[in-house]
User: Which sequence fits this backbone?
């Protein structure tokens, strides 16, 4: 079932959206603040996010980098052109000003989910010099094949699917457990170390960064 996360501190609007989306057959998750949205993202990866911008704690604009790889429709009372342009440039897939027509919102959701499916049909994940074909299960670094174990492949896939996020150890283990049930927390560090070594040998760069006590993330070498 397609899952949509509503990030909005306005309970009335959130309840209304939840009713409409469930009626359309979507599974709905809710977050009422920026901090709660990040905690929710550690446990669930939705197919799309409806994001209010004016939130308690972290603002919608501050949250956008954490949602990389997930289509985000900003739904906000900020109607100024400058605000819309800034949010789109920061990574939102679409922008809809409040108040809005629910039929238009549903149409925009359909369009974004269709785009997402079209992208997945391509079967490729890319991060700088790394490329993963999850149809053939092949990985390339600098266009050269890198031979990974099933566990290493699973670790790299979840990192590439969440390039701007720290992936916790527990979340990583949950993701790869179906294919590699023998991988437990005590051995995860060894698998990550072996993967890091293979990528470093292929590229000369240490793409995997350990975040002490939490998990791992991809390190970017692109100069912004």
Assistant:
């Amino acid at each position: 079932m397609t899952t949509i996360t509503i990030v909005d501190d306005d309970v009335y609007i959130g309840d209304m959206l939840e009713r409409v989306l469930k009626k359309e057959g979507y599974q709905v998750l809710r977050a009422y603040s920026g901090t709660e949205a990040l905690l929710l993202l550690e446990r669930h990866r939705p197919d799309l996010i409806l994001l209010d911008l004016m939130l308690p704690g972290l603002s919608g604009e501050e949250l956008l980098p954490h949602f990389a790889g997930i289509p985000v429709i900003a739904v906000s009372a900020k109607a100024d052109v400058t605000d819309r342009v800034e949010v789109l440039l920061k990574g939102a897939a679409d922008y809809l000003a409040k108040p809005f027509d629910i039929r238009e919102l549903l149409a925009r959701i359909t369009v974004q989910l269709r785009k997402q499916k079209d992208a997945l049909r391509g079967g490729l994940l890319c991060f700088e010099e790394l490329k993963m074909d999850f149809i053939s299960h092949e990985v390339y670094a600098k266009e050269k094949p890198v031979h990974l174990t099933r566990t290493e492949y699973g670790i790299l896939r979840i990192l590439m699917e969440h390039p701007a996020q720290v992936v916790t150890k527990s979340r990583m283990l949950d993701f790869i457990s179906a294919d590699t049930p023998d991988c437990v927390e005590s051995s995860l560090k060894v698998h990550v170390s072996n993967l890091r070594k293979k990528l470093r040998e292929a590229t000369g760069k240490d793409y995997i960064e350990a975040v002490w006590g939490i998990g791992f993330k991809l390190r970017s070498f692109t100069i912004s």
